[in-house]
């Protein structure tokens, strides 16, 4: 069978997507890769390889050796980390995508998946129910790289028929990995603090709304998009995708009934400006119409599920 390569498998999305793809296609057909060998230990349910996506020869050799026909290219520097080293973030996020698109063209691959983000939107974007098509003008290097990446995805589809598919993820929340340098990651960290019995200091204001999604919904959306018939994928830049919208105060209030002693305070830092430049909510009707997207988890259900599993989860 043709193999599936996942680049950046040990991240928040990658670790859960590697498991879901293994469940579907079998561990012998999924190759999970990461730059850090230690990160691969927990992915022993499928094939694993240490791989630096910037090492083009190594990626090309692996693709040919394993007869890879699909790539999920997830490696990226996220918004908050990106602001600390903008040129590196640009270099990694852009060069790696262009290389993978070029490789897909050369090797006539079946499909490529590349995640975009609500970070493509900026301060001049309509903030409520942000439409699929509108002013973007992102002002983080991460957002600029995602917007440029979307243009390159559409370009490679139109000019070279590369079947590349993409979603603009909201903040993704899962309990199987630790926060990874994103602005929305406070909503991951808060659960760890609650179960550890610690006070939580939010780096965003109490009323700072952001679009968010529980990881099982994100995995479902990704696999539904990738399995949809080609003619149903009408947007080749990236689809708006939405599930739940909440503020730090609201997620705290969803946890409090489970941990009545849990406390929170608010000390906004540089990440507040990033959050302020992003939408409060996103209109994802095109995803719902074109390939039948729907989400399952609201805030209460997500919190109950995380608090059920996280205390016994080992990292
Ligand atoms: C981040 O906060 O940087 C990411 C994202 C919204 O893409 N989670």
From TrEMBL:
Gene Ontology terms for molecular function: L-threonine 3-dehydrogenase activity
Pfam family, one: Epimerase
InterPro entries named in the record: Epimerase_deHydtase, NAD(P)-bd_dom_sf, NAD(P)_epim/dehydratase
Alphabetical GO biological process terms: L-threonine catabolic process
All copies of domain NAD-dependent epimerase/dehydratase, residue ranges: 4-234
Family, per entry: Belongs to the NAD(P)-dependent epimerase/dehydratase family.
Protein known as: Nucleoside-diphosphate-sugar epimerase
Species of the source: Mongoliibacter ruber
């Amino acid at each position: 069978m043709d193999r599936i390569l996942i680049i950046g498998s040990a991240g928040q999305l990658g670790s859960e997507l590697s498991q879901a793809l293994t469940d579907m296609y079998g561990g012998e057909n999924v190759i999970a890769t990461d730059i850090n060998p230690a990160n691969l230990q927990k992915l022993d349910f499928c094939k694993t390889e240490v791989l630096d996506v910037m090492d083009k020869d190594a990626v090309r050799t692996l693709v040919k050796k394993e007869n890879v026909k699909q790539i999920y290219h997830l490696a990226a520097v996220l918004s908050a980390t990106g602001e600390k080293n903008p040129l590196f973030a640009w270099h990694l996020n852009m060069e790696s995508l262009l290389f993978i698109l070029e490789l897909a063209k050369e090797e006539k691959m079946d499909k490529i998946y590349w995640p975009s983000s609500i970070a493509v939107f900026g301060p001049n974007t309509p903030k409520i129910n942000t439409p699929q098509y509108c002013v973007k003008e992102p002002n983080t290097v991460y957002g600029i790289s995602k917007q440029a990446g979307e243009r390159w995805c559409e370009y490679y589809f139109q000019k070279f028929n590369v079947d590349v598919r993409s979603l603009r993820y909201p903040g993704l929340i899962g309990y199987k990995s630790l926060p990874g340098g994103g602005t929305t990651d406070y909503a991951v960290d808060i659960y760890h603090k609650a179960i550890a019995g610690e006070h939580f200091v939010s780096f965003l204001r109490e009323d700072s709304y952001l679009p968010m999604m529980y990881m099982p919904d994100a995995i479902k959306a990704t696999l539904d998009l990738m399995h949809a018939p080609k003619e149903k994928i009408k947007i080749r830049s990236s689809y708006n995708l939405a599930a739940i919208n909440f503020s730090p105060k609201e997620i705290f209030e969803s946890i409090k009934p489970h941990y009545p002693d849990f406390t929170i305070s608010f000390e906004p830092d540089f990440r507040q400006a990033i959050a302020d430049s992003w939408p409060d909510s996103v209109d994802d009707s095109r995803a719902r119409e074109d390939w039948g997207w729907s989400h399952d988890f609201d805030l209460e259900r997500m919190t109950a599920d995380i608090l059920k599993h996280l205390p016994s989860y080992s990292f």
